[in-house]
User: What shape does this take?
Amino acid sequence: MTSTLVKVPFVDLNLQHQEIQSEIEEAIAKVIERGDFVLGETLAEFEDSFASACEVKYGVGVGSGTDAIAIGLRACGIGVRDEVIVPANTFIATIIGIIQTGATPVLVDCDRHTALIDLEAAAKVVTPQTKAIIPVHLYGQMVSPRQLLDFASTHNLLILEDAAQAHLAYREGSRAGSLGIAAGFSFYPSKNLGAFGDGGMLVTNNEEIANKARILRNYGAKRKYFHTELGKNSRLDTVQAAVLNVKLSYLSEWNRSRNQAAQQYDRLLERLKPQGINPIENQSGAGHIYHIYVIEVGTGINRDEIREKLALSGIQTGIHYPVPCHLQPAYEYLNYKKGDFPNTEASCDRIISLPVYPGLTNSQIDFVCDRLQAIINSSVLH
Ligand SMILES: *Cc1c(COP(=O)(O)O)cnc(C)c1O
Assistant: This one.
């Protein structure tokens, strides 16, 4: 194996941590001093501050983003025999969250240009069993709140947002997490707001749902040793809450920096459009927080070859995601087949995620775009 010097990593968490290391160490030291590692004081503080940042009343810290979705659905009374509409173009965890409740995920295709759920397609799969829709704010761009609220009221469905990639994203005057009955966030380390391990949060304006979620995450007990619900053990550690609370005050600035990086990519990649390179459309301007910056290559272009050549230049890329949920072997029993969701399938075959993170420099972005152009110009088209 030849080792190539990495010039542009896909993500660089060290950059943000160096900036705030002493603050984080202090916050962790406080938790150690207090010793309240599970459901401690700093967790309650972070739940409040994150919920208000999302312009929502209540936050319930849980073990992961996956659990936030599962616990959120269960707190809304969704379970066996219920159907939940979800985009096929998402990370598998959205589907796992639904299946954990006993409900059936009903998949729909995405829009060609934004890669977000296609609500016209969603309208066609509503049945009397449909209870909710989970819009996924994929890559950091919200599904249009106006269209979503219209859809949900027309069909009388609950909205539970999967906002795992959309911390503080906004569109049409609304924040991610504030649209529906509840919303799930993930604090997986590489998310825009990431812990030093796993973590997640359910946010809601509904006090009853918040209370129910608090019971569900804590063995189903409201009072210790008295179990009124079939609960689980899924809490956000106090130490993680301390880390996240420090990071939260930097998040808007970090998101802005990602959005600026994306604008720079957009400008530089404009000249590659005639050659079939198209960024996924941003329809929300500054409210898109670019958890991931994604381009689509035309049908004549060999994506893997481009990625390999970029890697040889020291540029790391990703694919989010290479295999759509409905074609994953574990979910064969849901009875979907190749061809069911053509936009999702085409997207999975043609997308490349370029590096984006706070601290990525303009000259790194220039370098990525220059290399991409050189590779496209020199490559044999298939
Ligand atoms: C990361 C992610 C999740 C799951 O979050 P975890 O904390 O990893 O369980 C769910 N949905 C989407 C869209 C995600 O990106």
Remarks:
- Residues 64-66, 90-91, 93-94, 136, 162, 164-165, 186, 188, 198, 200 surround pyridoxal-5'-phosphate (CB under 6 Å).
